[in-house]
Write the structure tokens for this entry.
Amino acid sequence: MTEISDLKAGLIADIAAANTLDAVEALRVGALGKSGVVTGLLKTLGGMSPDERLAKGPPIQDLREGVAAAIAERKATLEQAALDARLASEKIDMTLPADLGPQGSVHPVSQVMDELAEIFADLGFSVATGPEIEDDWHNFTALNIPETHPARAMHDTFYFPDVNDAAQKMLLRTHTSPVQIRTMMTQEPPIRIIAPGRVYRSDSDATHTPMFHQIEGLVIDKGITLGHLKWTLETFLKAFFEREDIVLRLRPSYFPFTEPSVEVDVGYTLTNGQRVIGGDGDAKGGGWLEVLGSGMVNRKVIEACGLDPDEWQGFAFGTGVDRLAMLKYGMNDLRAFFDGDLRWLKHYGFSALDVPTLSGGVGA
Ligand code: DAH
């Protein structure tokens, strides 16, 4: 009996003396873990006679409860101390005079959008925009996305309430593709545009945020072929990743608004044990990363915009701007993009004076 109370006193003294969460955890494992001392004692109960168990059971149970309570209490104290220390170190005094001058930097998403605008301006593309609050027709129907397409399911799309006319149903655009429709309906071809902007989907984890950024490309002209698409994407990705050895892999795919559709992968290779974009993805240690969806604009889409598909053809592409930024600048958690943490922005942000230019290197 005294053995058990000695053991309890010893363990509780050790727990009270533990100065870190790791030390508390080590004590917990040593006492209550699978092969801990207290667990060992509890296991002996099964082999005892009823009388013996009646005598020894309560002190052993008391030991277990006492130790568990001491651990929980010590853990809570240390966690609170860690939180207090963190709050103290991250405190900002908003009443201090602003004598440091502006501390801002250009967010990687803005930087990449500027880089893309610069690259495509050089290829003769202008920048088009459209509303983030869209109607169902522009976001889906005109893009040949039938009523049954999964993109229309409520779990993907943020719809606005109180609508009666289906074509006028309002939503937060789920992609930048409706800007294709708006452009074809208001501009005379030939058309060469890119459309960067925010898009929204009801989705959230380490690689998905409810709001993210896409960029759309659209070319409408006479006699446009898949060859023009491939050259354009190759030229764009070489300029964007600032490497001549970019290798593309075009895989057949399906998008309702393009026919045929292709998904575009870019090759990466292993350089000093690091995955680096560039080179043949089939090389040893290399691989392919999907970077774009694209294809030849579906005749039905051209028709929906009031153009004659026998006269006008084109290609389109779309990609995630946040993803491009992550690939180029080596960030791995998308959520950090939208935290507004000054330390992150200081590290990953760009100087407002470093305007991307093709001659200076777009990412400089
Ligand atoms: N809108 C598509 C999406 O959000 C991306 C896309 C694919 C855009 C193919 C295109 C395209 O213009 O041709 O997933």
In short: The domain at 108-348 is CATH 3.30.930.10 (BirA Bifunctional Protein; domain 2). The longest strand covers residues 258-271. Residues 175, 177, 216, 255, 258, 293-295, 316-318 surround 3,4-dihydroxyphenylalanine (CB under 6 Å).
